[in-house]
Amino acid sequence: MIPAAPRPFCDDAKRGEGDHERIIMCGIVGYVGGQSALDVVVAGLKRLEYRGYDSAGVAVLADGGLASTKKAGKLVNLEKALVEQPLPAGTTGIGHTRWATHGGPTDANAHPHLDNAGRVAVVHNGIIENFAGLRAELAERGHDLASETDTEVVAHLLAEAYSSTGDPAEAMRQVCRQLEGAFTLVAVHADEPDVVVGARRNSPLVVGVGEGEAFLASDVAAFIAHTRSAIELGQDQVVELRRESVTVTDFDGQPAEVRKYHVDWDASAAEKGGYDYFMLKEIAEQPKAVADTLLGRIDGSGALHLDEVRIAPSVLREVDKVVVVACGTAYHAGMIAKYAIEHWTRLPCETELASEFRYRDPILDQRTLVIAISQSGETMDTLMALRHAREQGAKVLAICNTNGSTIPRESDAVLYTHAGPEVAVASTKAFLTQLVACYLVALYLGQTRGTKWGDEIRTVVRQLSEVPGQVERVLETMEPVRALARSLAHKNTVLFLGRHVGYPVALEGALKLKELAYMHAEGFAAGELKHGPIALIEDDLPVVVVVPSPRGRSVLHEKIVSNIQEIRARGARTIVIAEEGDEAVVPYADHLIWIPAAPTLLQPLVATVPLQVFACELATARGNEVDQPRNLAKSVTVE
Ligand code: M6R
Q1: Do domains 27-267 and 472-621 have the same CATH topology?
Q2: Cα 320 from Cα 317, distance rounded (Å)
Q3: Any idea which fold 472-621 has?
Q4: CATH for 27-267, options being 3.60.20.10, 3.40.190.10, 3.40.50.300, 3.40.50.460
């Protein structure tokens, strides 16, 4: 039996003034059904750990009470605690895995948070901006708040609202109407052993519908082992889960329209499948991811059919400027998109870091097409950039890998990449599929606007269809790259050089190395070398050079061969990525990585792969956590 003492089974602690914790990125799971809630929730949290891994916690309803455990650090700490001090068995529960933004990753800051009586448990994604006022009001009404956290305020408000309504969903609606800010919430009440309630504003929350059971989670990966039937919740909706029913309303209690969908991948896609790391699996999946992203978008005659691009052709013909916004790896895909869009459509195209975009008062109007690229569809900077663009009248097309996420929902149209779930924090297959989607959009714009002839499009489409096989071949030849990476594990710095589309590839290679190997890594446009960076070159400094095809723009090739000679003359150890048969680079390469011949614009699809393998192997050699690099989370839902 769960004792009726205040705060049972909860290791929460009192925290100091000003220690206001704000949870913005994390994973949430809720379950009601016939299975052990703890097993389902902990397994779900494992699948969501990519969203944050600073602390984790669970709460289950059992024997008329509520039991909770939470621990700082990775999920494994929580699992250990649950073995040392097992929770009573129950079939309704919630859980949370956290990425700390404000407030350290401590046991006390971990979720769930409980009310004083220990009858309500709540997990939260977001920031309750008016929590201080609400807290003061609760204190006046006699509540004793144990922490300064905004989430704890919600637990108290829910307890209060439930005591007057006796209805957990109505209590949640009442509370949501009082809250300001971002708050995706999932809660249970000890008096309602077969109910989980949730509310969504901003961060994602998806319902899974099973036979006699239902799930709530930040991502379908959390429940994909149990059901592939999902319901996407919209903004400002409250959901009540029971074993046999799912009821969704708006915050005023009006029935809400929801989108039901079938998840088109299964549990094995979200598992390591025999690989040591998700990243290795995801690198290996790239040929299929590229092929899947092309699938169904090209007809027998080689013409493009992007049915999802719901922006009318007449509107696309009026577009006079394209702006691409994205962050991190997706931004590098956007940089490459600029080359393709300008070359194939003759439209001016700017690519901008989403985090900078709206702060510089960009010039946008209804003739601007904004392309927002995001694997997760949740990146806050990209979301804010697209909102700003739409406010200025621009049309927004999202390129996204996550069905039903916020960025596609708020865009005028979406082209989904079909990479399948990407779990490793370092983006790999998502990047390649973002590139494919960018090429398709560029070609589609060219097709719609008449700047590309059908036979030109067919040629590029044919070249794209060869990419899965080419990536496969690259992957088969990676052992020397891995050996090289291991031999460089003691180095402090690696530089990356490229020209044209090879420049963003160099930036991507450097980003991968930074986030995985924690090494100083910089990418430069090779033409900029003599304007400063060449001063960094010293004896035996590894410099990776991405060499464009000698067949395409030979001037680019000649210039980069000169750059290789310049750095080698100053002692650099040159690691050259070049097209098979490019004899011109051989005399100046200390290490050669051959890649299959691809047209200049498409070369990033093959040239990036060795850089991913290189970074992954270096991280392993340096003893780093490959899938969950320090300080990072997969989805950056905070500005
Ligand atoms: O989900 P998004 O594509 O919007 O994420 C953008 C970046 O946070 C992401 O690409 C990040 O740079 C990767 N972890 C890099 O590997």
Answers
A1: no
A2: 8
A3: Rossmann fold (3.40.50)
A4: 3.60.20.10
Give tens-digit pLDDT for 211-234.
999 999 998 999 999 999 999 898
**Which mutation among 331, 379, 383, 410 tests ligand 1's pocket best, with the greatest number of atoms within 8 A of CB?**
379
Is any ligand 1 atom within 6 A of the Cβ of residue 327? yes
State which ligand 1 atom lies nearest to the alpha carbon of 407: 4
Digit-coded pLDDT (tens) for 427-451:
999 999 999 999 999 999 999 998 8
pTM over 0.70: yes
Neighbours of 109 (CB within 10 A): 26
Query: Domain-by-domain residue ranges, the chain?
Result: 27-267, 286-465, 472-621
Q: Which fold has domain 286-465?
A: Rossmann fold (3.40.50)
SS3 307: coil
**Nearest atom of ligand 1 to the alpha carbon of 434:** 3
Q: What whole-number distance in Å separates Cα of residue 261 and Cα of residue 408? A: 15
For ligand 1, atom 8, name the residue with the nearest CA: 328
- What DSSP letter does each residue of 67-127 carry, written as one string? EEEEEESSHHHHHHHHHHSPPPP-SEEEEEEEEEEES-S-TTTSSPEE-TTS-EEEEEEEE
